[in-house]
User: Fold this.
Amino acid sequence: MARFIAHRFLQALPLLWLISLVVFVLLHIIPGGPMAAYGNNPNMTADDFKRLEHDLGLDAPLHVQYLRWLGAIVRGDWGYSLASKRPVLVEIGDRLPNTIYLIGVAIPITLLVAIPIGMLSAIRQYSVLDHSVTTVAFAGQSIPVFWFGLMLIIVFHVILRNPVSGTPLFPGGGMYTLGGPFSLIDRIHHLILPVAMLAVVSAATYTRYMRASMLEVITQDYVRTAHAKGATLSRVIWKHAFKNAAIPVVTILALELPTLFNGAVFTETIFSWPGMGRLFIESAFRYDYALLMAIIMIGAALTIFSNLFADVAYAFLDPRIRYT
Amino acid sequence: MKASRRLGTLVLTAVLVLGSVSLSTGPAFPQTRGGTITFALYQEPETLNPYIYVQTASGEVAVFIVEGLLAYNDKGEYFPRLATEVPSRQNGGISADGKTITYRLKEGLKWSDGQALTCEDVKFTWQAVIHPKSGAVNTSGFREIDTVECPSPTTVVVKYKTYYAPFLGQFTSGIMPKHATGDPAEMTRWAYNRKPIGTGPFVILEWVSGDHITLIRNRYYRESGKPILNAVIIRITPSREVGKQLVKTGEVDVLWDLAESDIPEIKPAAGVKISAAPGPGAERLVLNLADPALDGPPADEVAKHPHPILGDVRVREAIEWGINKRELNEKLLFGLASPGTNELHIGWATCTTRASEFDPNRARQLLDQAGWKVGSDGIRVAQGAKFAKDGTRLRLKLQTTTGNKLREQTEQLLIDYMKGIGIEFFIENVPSAVLFGSWSSGAFRKHGHYDVVLYTSSPDPDPHGQVEGYFASWKMPTAANSGDGFNYARWANKTADDNIKLAGSSPDLATRKKAYCAVMDELIKDRPHIYLYGRSTLNAYRERLQGWVTNVWQNLGWNAQDWSIK
Assistant:
């Protein structure tokens, strides 16, 4: 196992290097660039322009710029944001906790909803419940996520009002009420709609996976045997079936872990959430190469390592799987 | 099962630990006195250092904190901020040759940390900006300064090497504190940039990245009893749309920068007031007078190789007569803009000229005379035209920035107008970063590879940089000058050149204004630019906020010390 993990780590390095090269080139061949922000300033002379371009290192040939970036990364230096001039890691550090806070609440809630419903749906296959769950899950998966978010705002922020105070039932954005003292209730109040937006759509997916894999497991011989020897239904389900049925879900969950870093672009934008997804979009509009490279590379590394994590978790859950 | 539970606990702990960082309370501030208002901004400032930021949104925040010696009032005229008066010949502030300017600072000025502001800070600001490693964006004027002398802590003597016409605008962006900044070579890294020590009515309490910036009253502010408000919270929204909803529901008191098309939605909202005033920006067509095949040709090359179609002034004139500016304004801008006239349509140097009327018959006649005959499909073809070979189709590429609905609608109307007089416009839009790209990035506007481009440009309160940059024949971007200047039309006009030189060397404002108007007269005859409409500056305020004054020359918080809540 240890050898397997070490091997996969070593494999990841050239892959990351390749990703960095491709992303770097792609970012730089997008027409336009960070200097265009200065393009309409009548007070800037060509000398000012050249001086800034040189300060930002943008006047060097592309391969030199890439080698400089790579050299800095090897030394652990992610550089400075081209727009704010602050260290890239400081920019990310400001936003990351907000994203982890949002996604970190949304994922457990999604699982708490999706797993029991998916299991129940499988156990009572073709019941009214099963049919409604499958229909709703299918609808949930098909809804465009941004549209769903906007609908949540229209219904719960614009239309529905708090009967006592007359204020909107739920806030339409932000993490907390600005200018007020800290209040846990206020935080939760702000969290409900964005979490609902994230949870409903991904719960639909998880429910379908959970149902499908549960169905597969409960028709197997060992489950029938458990039934036959007189085990109670809950014992059969929890003791015998669940663990095996959970394997595919764990894999998908592991692959979703990078969202804790990458954030959710639509949800953050619709609910004015100052997380990583918005940071990425804003940096893209500003051609902030340094910040974009850092977000993409860290995201890529996390994706690779969560794949590895999923494989390891697999072996953990299913003793038949062995890595040598 | 046990192991996965352990794993679950681990993940949960991590979430809670990291989450608690974002759960931590912001610093508290007293809720007494004049109350708190919220201001919605749809862009996050990059930095608050006035010499580094590029986006207008940054200035919208910095204006609450950072002040200059002079500022612009709502008429675009200078008024003293940190200085006691605007330097002039009469008060001895301007020497006879206009090269030595003396400012007197108000007595007892203090920074928001309680330290005294002196002439040394003004001198430091100049030194910091001109430092080769400072990263300052705009150094024009500062480089022309020879020395800044401090005969007393409140007297600032600025000596220019050569006469610099917009000298009064020099110290309007902000004075930086010598004691609370750092080494000019490290200017982009200063802690000041995120938390400036200033002299304005407010100071920064906290800046939560991507979310909000809280400003509280500066207790060392020079006017007693001011500012009236206790705090201003700048709320950073992901888009203007979000801001519109917030101002409608009353969650924010100020909404910055509306578009004309937002007005029908915002105006009927209860409790909202809109501030609308003609702004300095004018949406225009820039016409390329040079052969677009040439790469950044200088004036003499342009004269030898004019644009085959647009090189003839009669075609340019016909284009303008063929555009219904009134309809553009009414249909697309809800009548809130003003029909386009010339570059200097507002401000102290206003040159009043009439907007062209819609006269397609006159346009057709002109094109007939210019040797462009109507072809079988209604589009004209050259037949004895001045520069185009016979048989050339009267077809021009129209370009603007992508993703701008108003501009796209304008283009559609322009296509129709031009079709009406036998000219074919076709669209090829590009992202703004491409249109406004640099010489070194090969941008087509800089290099002259285009026919017609459509965008907005705005002169500063002192229009010299704009008038010279766009209309002087020596300001055509070429390889020889590394793409300096904005004369993208590549227009060369002797009278205009002479008057730009005169304005640039004369300390007398009346003389300068006369010279600029002479340039505008040539401009509207020659039409290197065709002005479609003057943009309005539009902001929305909740009724409970009082004391704001519309000033298109400054960021909207320019008089925030006088704001109060009803």
Q: What stands out?
A: Residues 1-5, 15-25 of chain B have pLDDT under 50 and may be disordered.
